[in-house]
Amino acid sequence: MNEGMKELLIVKYGEVMLKGNNRPMFVNALIRNINEVFGDSVRYRIRKGQSMLYIEPEEGFDLDQATKQLRRVFGVLLFHRALEVEKDPEKIKASSVDYFAKALNGSRSFKIETRRTDKQFPQRSQEINNLLGAHIADAFPHLQVDVHDPDVTLFVNIRKEAAYIYRDKERGAGGLPVGTGGKATALLSGGIDSPLAAWLIARRGVALNALHFHSYPYTSERSKKKVIGLARQLAQYTGRMNLYVFPFTGIQEAIADHCPDDQLTIIMRRMMMKGAEKIARKTSAQALVTGESIAQVASQTMESLTVTNAAVDMPVFRPLIGMDKEEIIDFTRQIGTYNISIEPYSDCCTIFVPRHPQTKPKLEKIRESESQVDFDGMIDKAMEKVEVIEIKPEEEAMIE
Ligand code: ATP
Ligand code: MG
Question: Is the pTM here over 0.90, yes or no?
């Protein structure tokens, strides 16, 4: 590359912009999270601009790798690679030709789109468009200018500190930086829904820990590994988190032995919520997250959800509540959890399934059935045996 030119990454943050006096806190969290995904072994500098971050590579920084990593950082609205050039018209001309040569890829038409935030710069945006357009058309005679529907657009941004040349911007993961929105406990089954529910809440800036109810030996070690895999995939977005594995066998057996068959599922759901609330309180989480969606199954009718909800005294977030299964599946393909979820290992819910589960349970009746067993005592006992697994994003999600 020419003298006075360097490539860097520009990150535009989204909603963080709307945070008024709290903005520095959000921006610092974003920087911290970017530092975490890049890791200690790479060298770069982050400079804060107005509504943007500039990530300037140093020795050995891999821009391709960093681009992939940035796609998974919440709080990033858009980002792109750009060439930083001295604000000298001749240098801008030379650099745009260099840059264009790489960006062409068989294109036949182009346009230049200039924005001049530095009003001191002598040429106006339209003049720069014309100047560069003519220069590029000279350098690449097969290219036509097409301002309406070009194959390639070259963006030029003239700012106070320098000029930036780049092609398209890429959409980031959106949302807010993880760690700015409190902490919640996400109930992770091995299914398709719960990982997306967790992901959506994390995207709002909420730090997570994950909780899985395991009914060994009714459910296998493999099903636990699958949940670890899902948690690792989530950790690609959230950073490190803890996964709590709650031994649920005794409680499930007690439900099956002492409660009416058609109430098994709803009571099991309530016991999970009670266990989850205990874990959440113990780990300073302020809310629970589940993958429920209205009427998807018998335990997710409005009546069932009401009875489930009544088991806890803490907000329960259900971000999938109004989503269709098809939409959920498409989304989970994008976030990389779908292929893990469809591995065939069953979770505990499929083991003790009644033939005719109630779809309109009554809270009084359910409480009456529950009073046959000291479930609170059992949950407290099980709490002592909860296993804690530290989930690190750098580990492979798929487990052989
Ligand atoms: P999923 O696809 O997430 O398993 P589901 O449609 O199968 O959801 P249910 O089995 O009724 O629905 O579970 C509803 C929610 O309860 C799940 O989305 C999850 O948040 C939680 N949940 C269910 N089973 C477990 C489990 N074994 N461990 C932890 N959470 C669970
Ligand atoms: Mg399930």
Answer: yes
